[in-house]
Design goal:
The protein is α+β, with helices and mostly antiparallel strands and 107 residues long. The protein contains 4 helices and 5 strands. Helices cover 29% and strands 21% of the residues. 16% of the residues are buried.
Length: 107
């Protein structure tokens, strides 16, 4: 039963919120002092706030941040499903250089 639930669970990158796909993620260490329990978006397991974990945010949007196990987030990063901004920028086409733009303008 848990195996089928894990197969059906989509990763954060495959589950775009607000209708747009997520291009890159920021990730930082987190630790909370309030007595609450989070659910890891990757494995679905419980995540006590006092434990060491990370905060993942799509495109730096703090309103959509999620708490996750450090090991789960690292596994997703190694699988290529949580690219950071630098990794995403490296896949984008480079803008034309100033010289190329100037040469294009001349008749």
């Amino acid at each position: 039963q848990d195996a089928t639930a894990a197969r059906q669970r989509l990763t954060l990158a495959e589950r775009p919120a607000r209708g747009e796909a997520v291009r890159w993620w920021s990730m930082r260490p987190a630790q909370n002092r309030k007595p609450t329990t989070y659910r890891c978006p990757f494995c679905g397991g419980h995540l006590p706030a006092l434990s060491e974990h990370v905060l993942v945010m799509p495109e730096g949007d703090p309103s959509r941040r999620r708490h996750a196990h450090t090991a789960c987030a690292l596994t997703e990063r190694k699988a290529g499903r949580l690219p950071d901004r630098q990794e995403w920028l490296s896949t984008q086409p480079r803008p034309p250089s100033l010289l190329r733009r100037l040469l294009r303008r001349s008749p």
